[in-house]
Amino acid sequence: MSDTAAAVVRAYYKTLRQGDPLPPYFLVDESTTKFGISEGAFGYDAVADALESQTETTTDWTIESHGLEVTEHGEYATFADEVTMAWTDLEAGTDRRFETRWSGTLVRRDAVESKTRSDGSGSETNDDSSADRTDGPAWLFRTMHVSTADKL
Fold first, then answer.
1. Which end of the chain, N or C, is more open, meaning fewer C-beta atoms within 10 Å of its C-beta?
2. Residue 152, pLDDT score
3. H-only helix segments in 35-146
4. Taking the model in full, what pTM does it have?
């Protein structure tokens, strides 16, 4: 996987389309947040639970990026995109489609892991999780916000 933040965002989109696990793309930290179209999750554990539930209850994802903008600023990056997203809700038996706006921040994995190892000040919620993710993305989402102007 490429070490650019833009490549990680694109890989996240691909992973979502494929129905593969999404939590490895998020920072294991109490400060991690993710807002979806109709929900919010605060802290890595809540984000991971929400993503795992989403994967279990949805299928046939389409993610079409219409203008991804990513800027790296040393140890962090920002991103924004307009995305057409569609999926099948297995619980409701309904196809859903939205024109959405995505934005958020990413942190460079090696900077977070280095800080946690060197001074012990990291607030990671589960030390085992970071050990399992050595082959993960070079950048991790700290925040992600997905919204739409459509009414639900």
1. C
2. 59
3. 44-57, 109-119, 127-132
4. 0.85
Question: Which pLDDT band holds residue 129 (cuts at 50, 70, 90)?
Answer: very low
CATH number of 5-98+110-147: 3.10.450.50
Q: Are 7 and 100 in contact (CB under 8 A)?
A: no
CA contacts within 13 A on the Cβ side of 26: 29
Average pLDDT over the chain reads: 88
Residue carrying structure tokens 């979806």 = 36
Report the alpha-carbon angle 102-141-20, nearest 5.
Answer: 85
- Integer Cα distance of 72 and 66 in angstroms: 20
CA 92 to chain centre: 24
SS3 26: strand
Token pair, residue 21, equals 């696990």
| Kind and range of the H or E run holding 100 | strand 94-108
Alpha-carbon distance of 2 to 118, in angstroms, equals: 25
